[in-house]
Amino acid sequence: MNQFNLGMIGGGTVGSGVFHALQQNSALLTARIGVGIAIRKVAVKAFDEPRPYPITEKLMTLNWRDVVEDPEIHIVTELVGGTGIAKTMILAALERGKAVVTANKALISAHGPELFAAARKHNTSLYFEASVAGGIPIIKVLRESMVGNRIDRIDGIVNGTCNYILTRMKREGAAFADVLADAQRLGYAEADPTLDVDGHDAAHKIGILASLAHGFWVDHHDIHVEGIRSLTPLDIRFAAQLGYTIKLLGMVRMAPPASGKKNSGPRISVSVSPTLVPDGHVLASVNDVFNAVFVSGSPIGDTLYYGRGAGKDATASAILSDIADAALDRKHGTPQRVPPFVAHARDGKVIPYAETRSRFYLRLNVLDRAGVIAKISAIISKAGLSLSSIVQPEGHEGETVPLILMTHIAQRAAMDKAVTAISKLPAVKGPSLLLPVEDFG
């Protein structure tokens, strides 16, 4: 077959962007893959809903079942979002043997095993390039281009909203709340920004990448997640004085094998946290709404993937790539060239965050009294930890002053225990802030 029919569910900002991109680049796509793509139906919430690009009226329907139940439609795009009705839509399409393309990272993160099992059962495929980092082809890189590599680490700036806020905080010395309000006004942040600024969107994405890289499903409940609400302009400035930039990083690391166990599955750590990144590292210069994913593997070494992580155009690019793959797979009768997750039964494990190791940045607010630093240092030493530097900036007015501690490499559990003990000192006032420091050594 040299032409496949496409049905789209969702005609809002992203959906109309995909429709527009297909209209603009249809001839180019056909010339490159040798297969035509014809849009047959587009399910929308309302015919007159606001959308950046028009959709041909005769193609629109208000009933998504008109798309998934049409026997003439071979490929379905789900661009509705969420984990409710979108799951029903995708399963209904897969059960009818249709290829499905989605940008729904929350759904993949929450229900990936069920969705991919349904695709296998009905001899079809689920494509999800647009679910992580927008227009950056990181899914295909991990799934296909690096299929012969052992992945040692992944570091991802995968949420444009947080990266925009942190960039503005560093450039302008502005407070988090002020930049967030501006981001909402400009459309970079949602009216309810919780999913972004509390780190959950990044967790959905880094969990998908971790699953691809290590061959077993990473449950999003096993990912340690911290957001950026607690960051202050002081933290941004102190980090800069120490030679670092704070970024919200999704991090995946290989962990040492379990003691006494041989031939067990991979052990990895997966986390999302504001992290101090050295100014000389390429990730420190990824600014505004851009995303970047740094992948280190063997034999390939270090690689970087950079681009726009969201928006109608970046998402449309990734969706078109998946549509092309779906059409070619259909044409050649190969529903799965490379399985998305190659070893679901593999005995892999996400280790507790408390077992991870790194250097740390600790910001305290303390009374400006003699002997305070000595007492804090004694607790640090008793916990078996060591400090690389102590910074107590001058010129701060008020009863308390900030105190910045930088540690050598330590286990998170030991660091948490020390911070708990320090917080009980009468001279320590207000909340502290503990962040990992990543030197990429």
From TrEMBL:
Span of domain ACT? 361-436
Describe the reaction catalysed, as an equation.
L-homoserine + NADP(+) = L-aspartate 4-semialdehyde + NADPH + H(+)
Binding-site residues for NADP(+), renumbered to this chain? 9-16
Q: In the Enzyme Commission scheme, what number(s) does this protein have?
A: 1.1.1.3
Residues that hold NADPH according to the record: 105
MF terms (GO), sorted A to Z: homoserine dehydrogenase activity; NADP binding
Protein name as annotated: Homoserine dehydrogenase
Organism the protein comes from:
Opitutus terrae (strain DSM 11246 / JCM 15787 / PB90-1)
